[in-house]
Design brief:
By secondary structure, the chain is mostly helical. It has 2 domains: 75 residues, no CATH class; 42 residues. It has 6 helices and no strands. The model has no long low-confidence stretch (mean pLDDT 90).
Length: 134
């Protein structure tokens, strides 16, 4: 689990109990189960979540977990495209499946181009802002 070691907890300004609570909140599906997992009350966890240093560490850890999940999805994307293309090209597959697969491939390709264009525009704007000292 990310961010639950003593060095990270100390860097984030968390004590050992808070670090344990952070880990539990990240891994348990409910507040009740997180409290049970870390041996603290739900009210204590709620109090921690209202603490600015804890809340910042919690948000950063959640962001890190989402980033790891996105990385996993990106790794699987190539296989997904292969499957979609195979279905779209399979003459024995039902026409509705072939059309759906082809539409999905086209939609994703268009979105990828749009995202690349948007990224280029943002980078250009950031360059202008930097050049203007902003």
């Amino acid at each position: 689990m990310p961010r639950n070691d003593d060095a990270t907890a100390e860097k984030d300004g968390l004590n050992a109990k808070q670090a344990k609570a952070l880990s539990a909140l990240l891994s348990a599906p409910t507040l009740e189960k997180a409290a049970a997992a870390c041996g603290q009350s739900e009210s204590t966890l709620l109090r921690y979540l209202k603490n600015e240093a804890f809340a910042v560490a919690y948000r950063e850890a959640r962001r890190e977990l989402v980033s790891l999940a996105v990385t996993g999805l990106q790794r699987a994307a190539g296989d997904a495209v292969t499957v979609l293309v195979a279905v779209a090209q399979d003459s024995e597959a039902p026409a509705s499946s072939r059309v759906s697969a082809a539409r999905t491939v086209l939609d994703l390709a268009i979105r990828a181009v749009e995202l690349d264009d948007l990224q280029a525009r943002v980078e250009a704007l950031e360059g202008v802002l930097k050049a203007n000292g902003n």
